[in-house]
């Protein structure tokens, strides 16, 4: 429903742009979700604030030698000052994701976003896992080109208390993009389409209201579904802010982060190509009795296919005249070619504008001796 996709983070502006891009048509077209979410990303990216979260389960302390507890103002959006500023606290003890800590290399700089470069002195490990990192300030070094970019939080609960957060990712309920006619949909139901991850967020997340949209740095776009509430003695804890992931149109933006892209894309393309080859090949019409079912279809199916090809051709011309997007035009052309191939398979004739289908034309396609 429209209400459902808006709750997931679709903006009304993106929905308008998507509708305008499609144009008016009586044709029923099935499309992937990627295009509408890509429109949404273009709307969100220039205006949403940037925030930071760190994995609550596997995070690693970074001990910064010589650093003192202090704060500075930083832009909420690197390219749009109108979004505002936020207070960023720095100090001698930081926390970062365990996955980032495992990529740190001793003797090299790492860029801590919204602060600067830190020189990694020692990566302490135990049983193959990083347990702590020793570093020292090197913020005078402004070379950020080849450094590892790290998101972090200041581990100071009095001045910079972290915000408990839950990131929610939704996957497709049906794992196959397009079900074939003979497919049993029960075999393609995703057993786990909702994924939740507990995080520690920056203090600014406490101010989010339901429906606010943000970008969590290096994790994607999110919409606030449940607001943060402070500690409540009735439940014995604070209520975490719940953020729902907003897809951006890319393959990896659906489902849990790090999920491997589904291997069903190539199957879909292969099936389409094979369908075009099988449907458009004139060989069966030349093999006598083997093509008799096509002739049996008669002029009725030929007239219907003729009308379908004509209507699709008009749609393609309209899209080109309106200067629609290339993916949309390619999809319409692809459908037109498939209809022409189906027409030739049923009638044994190449489709031409303005042609009419007669029973006499349909019969020879079967190649039977009696008809000849």
What strand line-up does the widest sheet have? 1-14-15-18-12-13-2
Question: What would the average pLDDT be, to the nearest integer?
Answer: 84
Largest sheet: 7 strands, mixed
Specify Rg, calculated over alpha carbons.
29 Å
End-to-end separation in angstroms reads 56 Å
Question: Strand fraction band?
Answer: 25-35%
Q: How many separate helices?
A: 9
**DSSP E strands, number:** 18
Helix content: 25-40%
- Class based on secondary structure composition and strand pairing: alpha+beta
Low-confidence spans: 264-299, 359-372
Shape: elongated
Helix and strand sequence:
HHHEEEEEEHEEEEEEEEEEEEHHHHH
How does this structure look, described?
This protein has 372 residues and is α+β, with helices and mostly antiparallel strands. The chain has nine helices and 18 strands. It has helices at 2-7, 12-22, 34-44, 98-101, 265-280, 292-296, 298-321, 326-347, 359-362, and strands at residues 49-51, 53-55, 59-65, 70-75, 85-90, 93-97, 109-112, 116-126, 129-137, 148-150, 152-154, 163-170, 194-201, 213-216, 220-226, 229-232, 237-239, 241-246. The strands form four sheets. A seven-stranded mixed beta sheet has the order 1-14-15-18-12-13-2. It has a seven-stranded mixed beta sheet with strand order 10-7-8-9-3-6-11. β7 and β8 (116-126) form a beta hairpin. The longest helix has 24 residues, at 298-321.
How does the SSE layout of this entry go?
Blueprint: H1 2-7, H2 12-22, H3 34-44, E1 49-51, E2 53-55, E3 59-65, E4 70-75, E5 85-90, E6 93-97, H4 98-101, E7 109-112, E8 116-126, E9 129-137, E10 148-150, E11 152-154, E12 163-170, E13 194-201, E14 213-216, E15 220-226, E16 229-232, E17 237-239, E18 241-246, H5 265-280, H6 292-296, H7 298-321, H8 326-347, H9 359-362
Parallel strand pairs: 1-14, 3-9, 7-10, 12-18
Antiparallel strand pairs: 2-13, 3-6, 4-5, 6-11, 7-8, 8-9, 12-13, 14-15, 15-18, 16-17
Helix pairs in contact: 2-3, 5-8, 7-8
């Amino acid at each position: 429903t429209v209400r459902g996709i808006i709750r997931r983070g679709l903006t009304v502006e993106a929905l308008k742009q998507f509708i305008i891009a499609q144009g008016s048509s009586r044709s029923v077209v099935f499309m992937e979700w990627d295009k509408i979410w890509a429109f949404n990303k273009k709307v969100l990216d220039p205006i949403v604030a940037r925030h930071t979260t760190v994995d609550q389960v596997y995070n690693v302390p970074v001990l910064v030698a010589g650093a003192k507890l202090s704060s500075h103002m930083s832009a909420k959006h690197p390219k749009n000052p109108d979004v505002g500023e936020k207070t960023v606290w720095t100090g001698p003890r930081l926390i970062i994701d365990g996955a980032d800590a495992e990529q740190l290399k001793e003797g090299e700089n790492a860029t801590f976003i919204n602060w600067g470069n830190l020189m990694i002195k020692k990566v302490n490990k135990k049983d193959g896992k990083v347990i702590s990192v020793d570093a020292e300030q090197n913020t005078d070094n402004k070379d950020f080109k080849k450094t590892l970019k790290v998101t972090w939080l200041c581990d100071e609960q009095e001045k910079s208390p972290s915000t408990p957060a839950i990131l929610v990712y939704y996957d497709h309920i049906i794992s196959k993009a397009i079900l074939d006619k003979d497919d049993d949909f029960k075999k393609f139901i995703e057993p786990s389409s909702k994924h939740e991850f507990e995080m520690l967020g920056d203090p600014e997340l406490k101010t989010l209201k339901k429906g606010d949209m943000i970008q969590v740095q290096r994790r994607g776009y999110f919409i606030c579904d449940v607001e943060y509430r402070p500690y409540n003695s009735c439940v014995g804890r604070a209520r975490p802010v719940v953020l729902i992931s907003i897809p951006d149109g890319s393959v990896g933006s659906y489902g849990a982060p790090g999920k491997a892209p589904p291997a069903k894309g190539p199957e879909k393309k292969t099936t389409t190509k094979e369908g075009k080859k099988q449907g458009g090949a004139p060989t069966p019409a030349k093999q006598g009795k083997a093509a008799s079912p096509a002739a049996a279809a008669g002029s009725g199916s030929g007239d219907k296919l003729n009308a379908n090809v004509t209507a699709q051709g008009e749609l393609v011309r309209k899209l080109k005249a309106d200067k629609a997007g290339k993916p949309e035009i390619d999809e319409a052309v692809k459908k037109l070619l498939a209809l022409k191939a189906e027409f030739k398979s049923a009638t044994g004739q190449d489709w031409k504008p303005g042609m009419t289908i007669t029973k006499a034309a349909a019969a020879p396609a079967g190649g039977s001796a009696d008809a000849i």
